[in-house]
Design brief:
By secondary structure, the chain is an alpha/beta fold. The chain has helices at residues 3-15, 44-58, 68-71, 78-89, 116-135, 157-173, 200-210, 229-238, 264-281, 300-318, 323-331, 335-347, 351-360, 367-374, 376-390, and strands at 20-21, 29-30, 33-34, 63-67, 92-97, 140-143, 148-149, 180-184, 194-195, 214-219, 242-247, 288-291. Helix content is 49%, strand content 12%. The strands form 4 sheets. The protein has a 5-stranded parallel beta sheet. It is globular. The relative contact order is 0.15. The model has no long low-confidence stretch (mean pLDDT 97). Bound molecules: beta-L-rhamnopyranose and manganese (II) ion (MN) (2 copies). Residues 144, 184, 219, 246, 292 line the site of one manganese (II) ion.
């Protein structure tokens, strides 16, 4: 590869970081059942330990996202322990995810629940989560709502929208200056008729209504099958409203498959829009890249390493598109030239350059191989197997 291209990749990788999900290390399943892994993390400490391994080997995952209900069992008091885990396992707490969908009270919704006492409870949990984030020095609070309805006529959609605005505004009021509220959308599931925040437009309107520190969170699995996600990304960038991503791949619905396993070109196109925006505006896009995957069949740590490696590859490929050449081709309506700039970049084998980059940082050239040789998996399998044979609860 030409030296200029390798340099582009080195530059791109220098700033590329991706956050690990704590829930990706614990036992999870589908609604039909769970396959327990003997090495799965059974405590928050073990999740930090596993995330620390992934960061040690890849060097690009300095933070782990936490789900308050699963990881902060004692609420605010858990922050002490979490700080200790962070120090011990060398990975910091990242985005904080309130849980507004699992408790019995939330059967008919949280911020959109017709019962004011439930809305109040949801708001209080969000405020507590913001305080947890503040104590942990976490910048982002990621809001995902399961709110919606299953049958036509059963919910007052406009009223619920007003309640959402109310709740989000109040939550926003509790943020410290540097913090952000990220608002995720999802078209269906668990609600199958209407979801209160169903798409990026709703998320954008609610973010604007909430306040200037609220931004949209794009989970790549939360779209209808044919949707052009990179166009959504381009629009949000131009509106300065793109807060971050939950990355995963999908074939049918919110499948949470490994990034790039089904459609790597999709992720490449998303990264390309971001790089192109940065090239055009001359400023880095302030976006949190996060993984939202929980592997039911693959080994959890291996799947995470595979994900991070693939994300680096697709980001590096996107860094090979020359912004100036592309802009010229677009201006001249040279369609084939413009299109092939993307296709050529995507077809380039960037793996040898990424390996050299890892070398230059003192990281293993092949993190998966290094993990397999480290003995870590054998050790935790022994340590955790007995506990996992009894512990069949999800996520924690
Ligand atoms: C949702 C959504 C959220 C995640 C939950 C567990 O589908 O993606 O981000 O926290 O799942
Ligand atoms: Mn998500
Ligand atoms: Mn999801």
């Amino acid at each position: 590869m030409e030296a200029r291209k390798s340099e582009n990749i080195f530059d791109a990788l220098a700033s590329f970081r991706i956050e690990l999900p704590s829930w990706g290390f614990a036992n999870t399943g589908t609604r039909f059942g769970k396959f327990i892994q003997p090495a799965a993390a059974t405590t928050t400490e073990e999740k930090f330990s596993d995330a620390g391994q992934v960061h040690l080997l890849t060097g690009v995952c300095p933070t782990v996202a936490l789900h308050v209900l699963w990881d902060c069992r004692e609420g605010l008091r858990s922050t002490e322990d979490i700080r200790k885990f962070a120090e011990r396992y060398r990975v910091l707490p990242g985005s904080i995810n309130p849980n507004l969908f699992q408790d019995q009270e939330y059967k008919y919704g949280s911020f959109g629940n017709p019962d004011p006492a439930v809305r109040q409870r949801a708001l209080q949990h969000t405020k507590d989560s913001i305080e947890i984030a503040r104590r942990l020095n976490s910048r982002d609070i990621s809001m995902w709502f399961a709110d919606g309805s299953n049958y036509p006529g059963t919910a007052n959609i406009r009223q619920r929208k007003r309640w959402f605005i109310e709740g989000l505004k109040e939550s926003h009021g509790a943020l410290s200056p540097g913090q952000r509220l990220l608002i995720e959308y999802k078209p269906f599931e668990p609600a199958f008729y209407h979801t209160d925040i169903a798409d990026w437009g709703m998320s954008l309107l609610l973010s604007r209504a909430a306040g200037s520190q609220a931004k949209v969170l794009v989970d790549t699995g939360h779209h209808y099958a044919a949707q052009n996600i990179e166009q959504i990304v381009a629009w949000l960038l131009s509106e300065e409203m793109l807060g971050g991503f939950h990355f995963n791949d999908r074939r049918y619905a919110d499948d949470d498959l490994t990034i790039g396993s089904i459609d790597p070109y999709q992720v490449f196109r998303i990264f390309h829009e971001i790089r192109y925006f940065e090239w055009e505006t001359g400023k880095p896009a302030d976006i949190a890249y996060m993984i939202d995957q929980s592997h039911n069949l693959k080994g959890k740590i291996e799947a995470m390493i595979q994900t991070v490696t693939m994300a680096q590859e697709l980001f590096s490929k996107a860094a090979l598109v020359d912004g100036r050449e592309l802009a010229t081709a677009q201006k001249n309506c040279d369609l084939v030239r413009a299109e092939s700039l993307l296709q050529d970049a995507f077809a380039t084998d960037v793996r040898p350059v990424i390996q050299d980059w890892r070398d230059s940082k003192g990281l293993p050239r092949n993190p998966m191989e290094a993990f397999r040789q480290s003995g870590y998996l054998e050790r935790i399998t022994k340590e955790r197997a007995a506990r996992n044979s009894q512990n069949v609860s999800s996520y924690a």
